[in-house]
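Here we describe the complex-level prediction in full. Unlike the single-chain runs in Section 2.1, the two entities below were treated as one system.
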Amino acid sequence: MKFFKEDHFIIIKSLVTKDLKLKYKNSILGYFWSLLHPVIYIAIFYVVFSNAFPSVENYALYIISGILFWTFFSTGTSQMTSSIVSGASILKSIYIPGYFFTLSLLISALINFLLSLIPFIFLMFFLGAKFQFSLICVLPIILLFSIFTYGFGLMLASLNVFYRDVNMIWLSFSPAIFYATPVAYVIDIVPEKWLFLYKLNPLVQFLEAVHHVIYNGLWLTWTELAILSAWALVSIFVGSSIYKKLEKGFVSNL
Amino acid sequence: MNKKENIIECKDLNVSFYIQGHGMGSFKEFLLSLGTKKPFVRKQVLFDINLQIKRGECFGILGRNGSGKSTFLRMLSGIIKPDSGSLTVDGSVAPLLALGVGLEQELSGYENIKLCSSLMRIPAERIKNTIDAIREFSELTHEQLDMQVKRYSSGMISRLGFSIAVSYDPEIFIIDEALSVGDLFFREKCYKRINEIIETGATILFVSQDPKELQKICKRGMILDQGRIKHIGDIGTIQDYYK
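The structure predicted for the assembly as a whole is:
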């Protein structure tokens, strides 16, 4: 396969290393920020909302599982949006496909996410998550969610080369999408007549699957898996189509 | 290996930029231009380029600012694809990193050597074996290379950039007005290294605005003027055409 050419591997590996090194360069807490960031959010939501949803048993566990996945998505996409633009000086001086920059940012965000997952796994068990085999369903969710995030990020990154407004739009929209996604609240509070529209948000499907597996301790159903796969495919298809369409104009517009 | 005599062959090449056509000055301008203008406007930069460069040749490119020199070089490195015509490049092209543009400010000199080399598709093993040579050539000390590049002087940056670019024996080497920086001694050293590279049989493309500089190493050259080749020929005679 073309993707697994050795020289592509060399480039992506060094870009990922660069991203990881740069992320916490000149900061005292370094890697701990990737733990601290969700901790702060979890604490805020727990304090503010735990009384608002008394019906939700073990609200802390509910919110942790949601916030971790949300943080991966929101930080991942916002970093990816400027990935091609910030690779400008390299893209102009050596032939490297622009999507390498987006892909390497996704991989470094994923590594960060997986690393931050480790301490939270202990916390989740402490809060009452049960250790059972169905938890293995988290793996396909993470895989499909990463593909979904990548496709979406690639679309934003490609458009951002031509209209830097994309970055601004996404910065203002992503908090709004947070409230349109069951991260801090349960889906039951959404009025029935809006539910159809609400479920068109692909993040609803992903977050519901996350809660299903981690919070409820259930196996992922085939239907859920099919829906998630479909969204991942749609995202990667749209993202790469837009990328291919715009690619030839990158260098002249950077 | 059966290699062609001509390392670079351009036939009737036309190259364009694609610039967004929507008005970007203001929101009103943008809205008004929607539907009336195409999303992309093509702006042709290079016209009918016909050129053969022989293996081992040192070829000079002369031209004023905006004449299409950089676009031509980017096309050779595969960064920009031509619209029409055929282009054959039969060898590895060293990137235009010489000015140090690819260097990451926040990383140390050593980290940048690894990063830039990897971007040039050099395997880790080979980078490790070359690091000493790069340090020696750049005349930067171990201590300096451990420092973040943002603390380097501009001369140090270009020295590091140039050293990385010349260290992997590329088949086609591009020098894009890189030698106008760095101190006198380092510049002399660069010329020496370029002559060494020529002796290994590599092809050199030397870009400059100064015909005298070109004469130092090139035998043949061309003048680019507003995207067209104005003249190709002996470097000695080229000066007469460049006015």
